[in-house]
From TrEMBL, chains A, B:
Superkingdom classification of source: Bacteria
Organism of this sequence: Tannerella sp. oral taxon BU063 isolate Cell 1/3
Positions of the DUF2520 domain: 129-251
Domain Quinate/shikimate 5-dehydrogenase/glutamyl-tRNA reductase: start-end pairs: 3-67
Signal peptide: none
Protein name listed in UniProt: NADP oxidoreductase
Record keywords: NADP
InterPro entries (UniProt xref): 6-PGluconate_DH-like_C_sf, DUF2520, NAD(P)-bd_dom_sf, Shikm_DH/Glu-tRNA_Rdtase, TM1727-like_C_sf
């Protein structure tokens, strides 16, 4: 296994975390990094032993075993068209891009979607990152699954269509959740209160749904449809967009309750 | 300290958790429980040693040291009017009710607001629950602070007005966040995927803001204003209310980014 080689196409957060896991956990050797941005390509190559870097998709070498495309969704198809055809296993890591973006460009291709949010300065234990795999044939799917299992203890096969829904759910669970944190932080900061007082509440909110469904875990004035509090709170919000969000999410919480 | 007595007015989740902490951490003796609902009053009294229970606010005894009102916001003022006047320290635990709900009813009164979400079946380490206190005089404030410090390592003095904003922030950080989990869970469940695959992502989203501000922690298509993904995802959502939320929260994330 130790002589398997990988080329990273992309050098952003997902690429950087995945490259590290591919080296340290799966034992692959990173031989080349492509990024449109020289600084990013060089930074990832330098932290990866003897890898070289390039800013030219056409200069990607053709003799590697695995090609991992970790690019923004809109860049992916264009770069995939410019990388020279080869016999390697082509994988992308995007939630909302169908596997067949590689069709006609590679013979063996698939998807390895790690469902996690990656930050520049936080290391992530890849064993605990659910990885969703897909391959262009049953044989390739097996190959991708085998590779993913060297990274993570939680590997699932998933179609491109279902992966798109999973990605949509991840936007709610991560980005939208984080936006709720940002709005909460803004409200307390405007009163001179440090946003860190909210952390135990945020932690417990996340911890609760390990035991309860989100519907069971819900509390608060919207769930009780406590109009006095709801009206008083809405009136405290100055930003009209945030006020509308407050009202719509409160309605949504109550609507969810009525369904049960 | 061990002979201090407390009456709980209310027997819901906050009352139950707080009663336990007042007994086990602060060493108070719970002597009586009032709840409009006999079943709740009896349940809390029974798990609290030799406390008696009542469903009549007028029957609340007058010789206790501390009276803790843990009621829904709209019930609080009415019950406070019916509890017989006495010389005890009256406290409520509500985020959005001003301290002066007790004015004219008690001589020594204040607020002890624990900022946490409590579930029936999850125990909470009260030492880590930020508690926000207020008193009708400087002397009473000291009394409430002293009591709160026997429960929690994190006690802050806060005015009624600021507490209302903190409660509003808590609604975003907890209830609205949990609604995002519920929507995410609904999206994956509709595809036959178990919602538990989202948990590592949810946990990491919460953990990130211990190191980064929510604004720094943000990722995803809305932040990049990646229109192709945003349009594709919006089109996948059937429920018009959820679709509108998707679009408004996405706009909010991008607007937050433009502010920086």
């Amino acid at each position: 296994m130790m002589n398997e080689t990988v080329v990273m196409i992309g050098a952003g957060r997902v690429a950087t975390h995945l490259a590290q896991a591919l080296r340290e956990r799966a034992g692959l050797r990173l031989v080349q990094v492509y990024s449109r941005t020289e600084e990013h390509a060089r930074a990832l190559a330098e932290r990866s032993g003897d890898a070289v870097w390039t800013t030219s998709a056409e200069a990607v070498r053709t003799d590697a075993d695995v090609y991992v495309f970790s690019l923004s969704d809109d860049a992916l198809a264009g770069v995939a068209r410019r990388v020279p055809a080869n016999d390697g296993l082509w994988l992308h890591t995007a939630g909302s891009v169908p596997m067949n973006v590689f069709r006609g460009r590679a013979r063996r291709y698939g998807v390895l979607y790690p469902l996690q949010t990656f930050s520049r300065d936080r290391s992530v234990d890849f064993r605990r990152v659910p990885c969703f795999v897909e391959g262009c044939t049953a044989e390739v799917t097996d190959e991708v699954r085998t590779l993913a299992k060297r990274l993570s203890d939680e590997v699932h096969e998933l179609s491109s269509v279902d992966r798109a829904y999973l990605h949509l759910a991840a936007v709610f669970a991560c980005n939208f959740t984080n936006h709720m944190y940002a709005l909460a932080d803004g409200i307390v900061r405007a009163r001179g209160i440090d946003g860190s007082v909210l952390r135990p509440l945020i932690d417990e909110t996340a911890a609760k749904i390990h035991r309860l469904t989100p519907r069971e875990a819900q509390t608060g004035p919207a769930l009780r449809n406590d109009r006095a509090v709801l009206n008083r709170q809405a009136a405290m919000i100055i930003d009209p967009d945030v006020k509308r969000l407050y009202e719509e999410i409160s309605r949504g919480i109550y609507a969810e309750r009525l369904k049960s």
